[in-house]
Amino acid sequence: MRPPLDSGTVLITGACSGIGREIARQLAHRARTLVLVAHSAERLAGLRAELEVLNPTLGVMLLPCDVSRPGEVGDMLAELSRHFISVDVLVNAAGAGERGLFARQRWGSIERMLLVNVVAPLLLVRRLLGPMLARGRGGILHIGAGAGQLFLPGAATYAASRRCLDGFIESLRLELEGTGIVLTQVAPGPVDGSEPQDDGERQGPQPLFHISAERCAREALAGFERGAALVYPGRAHRWVMTVLPRLPRAVRRALGRRVARDLQERSGAEAALMAEKPLGLVEDIPSLA
Ligand SMILES: NC(=O)c1ccc[n+]([C@@H]2O[C@H](COP(=O)([O-])OP(=O)(O)OC[C@H]3O[C@@H](n4cnc5c(N)ncnc54)[C@H](OP(=O)(O)O)[C@@H]3O)[C@@H](O)[C@H]2O)c1
């Protein structure tokens, strides 16, 4: 069973840069209509101009929207209904990630990661799945991250948000068996951007685990088309992700502990501040009362 990419309507979140943008480029000659979602209307308009040069017959609809706001997602889907557009394939590529020791992160950024990486994909899948089930065909390509399967000091919330979706996607995939809907999760490692200057800025050779957004998108779409449950793009990353999650937890903790120690040493001043004011120090944490 293949996802209906050819001559279908594909909605891509996070379309204006990185992996989402590359997926849009690679589908420009295949899809009938691309519905492009991201924050920035201006960057989306730039992408539309580029796609229309690649394929003048392609339909392109721009829906600027902050997916961390469920109300805006609802308005965006209502706009689709007003134009009688039904989505054949959903590509969740919008993502938010911020590094830092958890106790020092502002609640606003923790909440934003959860809203963009967890709530928005679930809301979109929940709203678009019904019509796909009714048609007996459809596809969902979720761009997650290898971080969901690792212990990552310095990225605890990000790892949690990815782990959450890992459980969701694997479980939902089982629920969807035999329905005609293809559900694939992509769990990349480090991916360089799709803008030409990203390559130009790099000094020296590409690090072993880094791949380009173009390659990530290509391997993601290939895995989606063969109905894979999980795709690790890039050979080196694929090898590590095959081995690392199988190590005993005690070994993985020991590896993580070294990373955490390095992090604390590097942010010595910050760590000292934390020792003076343990937890409760970030003023924007909402009261649970
Ligand atoms: N790059 C990596 O190394 C890497 C590694 C593993 C996993 N991933 C995951 O792969 C996905 C794509 O990553 P990327 O590096 O290609 O992304 P990126 O270049 O940082 O682009 C992120 C995209 O998401 C959109 N976006 C972010 N927050 C949004 C919001 N609240 N509402 C609407 N759009 C929003 C951005 O739009 P605006 O620019 O308009 O805000 C942008 O189009 C993400 O989920 C990321 O976590 C990336």
Topology:
Elements: E1 9-13, H1 18-27, E2 33-38, H2 41-54, E3 59-64, H3 70-82, E4 89-92, H4 107-135, E5 138-143, H5 156-175, E6 181-186, E7 191-192, H6 196-201, E8 211-212, H7 213-225, E9 230-231, H8 235-243, H9 249-266, H10 268-276
Parallel strand pairs: 1-2, 1-4, 2-3, 4-5, 5-6, 6-9, 7-8
Helix pairs in contact: 1-7, 4-5
NADP nicotinamide-adenine-dinucleotide phosphate (NAP) binds at residues 14-20, 38-40, 43, 65-68, 93-97, 116, 143, 145, 188, 190-191, 193, 213.
Features of the shown structure:
Rossmann fold; 2 domains; seven-stranded parallel beta sheet; alpha/beta; 289 residues; two-stranded parallel ribbon; binds NADP nicotinamide-adenine-dinucleotide phosphate; 10 helices
The secondary-structure class comes to alpha/beta
The shape, in one word, is globular
- Distinct helical segment count: 10
Largest sheet: 7 strands, parallel
Q: Would you count the extended β strands for me?
A: 9
